[in-house]
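Subject: Sanity check before I submit

Could someone independently write out the structure tokens for this chain? I want to compare against mine line by line before I put it in a report. The sequence has 180 residues.
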Amino acid sequence: GVIVSCIIEAVNNAFEGCPSPTPTPAVSLDLRLDRTVGAVHITARLTNTSDSPVFYLSGCSARCRPWMYRPVSFDVTAPDGSAVIVKSEEYPYPCSTPVLCPEGPQQISPGESLEEPLEIDGTAWNVDMSDGFDFCGVCTAEPFRAGRYVVTAHSAYSTDPNNVYLSAGHVERTVEFDWP
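---
Independent answer below. Compare away.
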């Protein structure tokens, strides 16, 4: 019985290698989607579920789009699979360049939670880089097309405060909604 199954497992491991354990993420990520007339409100809640602090970068990571280092970042995908740029409180005109936005590590203590909101008002922003003059291109707004949209929230974190730039972990969650 038990001895034979142990021997079989040992032989299989010798030929195929030992199975590597899947590490448990140090954080959990939950999404809440609320609808109002003409808007979608998404709240991502990131919680440190480990016994040690975790770290993420805070600041700006891009020049022409509102991709900032935050506890949680969002990607919005249109029904045709293209990326959709939406405005944020920090960037009411999403194609602008950040002005002096330093980056630095931030800590989330064990048991602590942070929330990041995403407000979608049905306006999609498009960047046209063909003019060649404006560093970030020309930005135009147009209404969302009807159909199913996918929002992916993701968080990159590190368990090493001295090496925040090389994330040790990544979690993501996805929600979908139909527009209008």
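---
OP: Matches mine. For the report I'm noting this point. The radius of gyration is 21 Å.
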